[in-house]
Amino acid sequence: MDVLYHDHGYGGGIFEALNGKVYGNGTETLVLAHGYGADQSVWHYLVPYLACYFKVVVFDLVFSANVSPDLYNPKKYSSFNGYASDLVNLLDELNVNKTIFVGHSMSAMIGCIASTKRPELFKHLILLGGSPRYLDAKGYDGGFTRSEINALFKQMDRNYTSWVQAFAPAAVGMNNTPATTEFKNSLRRMKPKIALSVAKAVFLSDWRSILPKVVVPCTIIQSKRDPIVPNSVAYYMKRKLNGHARIRILDNRGHFPQLTAYNLLLKVLRRFLVIN
């Protein structure tokens, strides 16, 4: 890699700092970006298959326990702009453009924001369980009331371990022990202060205004019963993406189809990525 981003605090380059890995050697680059509380291992069921067709890039977001906690700057990452900047820098360092980007949960909006800054880096955005706003607002069902979010923050602050015990199975949203264990272990490894800081950046965010500025074609993929993101949000996003989006509702429960319904998700991805 030729470009090192010393000025961003990543001494050996951002790809290395965020534990970037590339699988496969296809001509097209497919980027997989995980969501809150997870890390790149959340894609482990999908990578072996996708790497047969693409150059697959995975990495950890800066809050992950796999990344040096010294790199987590609460001010920079109080907004998704900080993460979008990291994504742009990582793709620049890899010297790729026209990528297919799959962003799960918070990374769906991170991809949208990055695409408004540098549209040439992206050919297709796949928004998996994404939401521009988790809080309810007038005429908008985000899935959470302000008092519910405040209670969540209070529980995290008071007793992080017991919050993880309750939140992980609720987010997975179905009786799937391996998936729940994976997410629980990932959350447990996070520093509680960082986990709370990131939770505030996610659950208090409002990126609805960015959607009409996205010019890259989008595919919205959503579980039919997602405890974090109501179906209405997926249709809201489709409307606001100015005709640049199509939508697919998976016949699945929960917020992590890449862990609980990976065969179904792969089937949908195959169709949208035109894999024969």
TrEMBL record:
Domain AB hydrolase-1: 29-260
Name of the featured protein: AB hydrolase-1 domain-containing protein
Protein family (similarity comment): Belongs to the AB hydrolase superfamily.
Organism: Salix dunnii
Gene3D superfamilies: alpha/beta hydrolase
Gene Ontology molecular-function annotations: hydrolase activity
UniProtKB keywords: Hydrolase
InterPro entries reported in the protein's UniProt record: AB_hydrolase_1, AB_hydrolase_fold
